[in-house]
Recover the amino acids of this structure.
């Protein structure tokens, strides 16, 4: 039962973090002239607008309960680079908005953690650490992660990008399981969480 409760808590925190992340994508796209997120109802902080039930709830909960691991995603925000100001460079700005929102949200959570009781402080600290992890994880330059849009802005040949996209999920799993990348990102998230908390505490 404790594992189920822990899994549910992780899913709720993850859902809470994906909401501002996807909203940031949508808001920046709108500001750069693309009305696609507006037409699809994504320029909102309503969590229901950004949930992918499989990637945000079902799979993360299953993984958390059965293996103790965690993998998930929010509902992607659709953008049209032909409508965006600055084209592919504008798309890169839209992509960067998501991880940037995770960093900002983590700072806000840790500011709260420094001025509340231990129970709430631990919850905010856990959410902030995960938010920072998501920020750096999403900067991996492999589709469909946000960092891959920087490759497009850098004008890499489209056939290379398409090949990366074909095997993107496998490449991400290999990078996280067969290298020290996941360990390094976890350590960075933990150390950065502690450093930011000390600023406020």
């Amino acid at each position: 039962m404790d594992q189920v409760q822990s899994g549910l808590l992780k899913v709720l925190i993850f859902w809470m973090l994906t909401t501002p992340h996807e909203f940031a994508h949508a808001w920046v796209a709108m500001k750069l002239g693309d009305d696609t997120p507006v037409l699809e109802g994504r320029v909102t902080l309503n969590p229901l607008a950004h949930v992918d039930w499989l990637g945000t709830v079902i799979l993360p909960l299953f993984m958390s309960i059965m293996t103790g691991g965690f993998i998930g995603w929010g509902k992607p925000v659709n953008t049209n680079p032909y409508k965006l100001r600055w084209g592919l460079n504008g798309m890169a700005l839209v992509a960067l908005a998501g991880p940037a929102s995770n960093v900002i949200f983590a700072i806000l959570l840790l500011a709260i953690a420094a001025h509340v009781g231990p129970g709430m402080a631990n919850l905010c600290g856990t959410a902030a650490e995960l938010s920072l992890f998501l920020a750096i994880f999403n900067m991996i330059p492999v589709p469909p992660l946000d960092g891959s849009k920087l490759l497009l802005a850098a004008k890499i040949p489209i056939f290379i990008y398409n090949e990366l996209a074909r095997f993107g999920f496998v490449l991400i799993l290999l990078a996280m399981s067969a290298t020290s990348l996941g360990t390094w990102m976890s350590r960075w998230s933990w150390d950065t969480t502690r450093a930011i908390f000390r600023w406020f505490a």
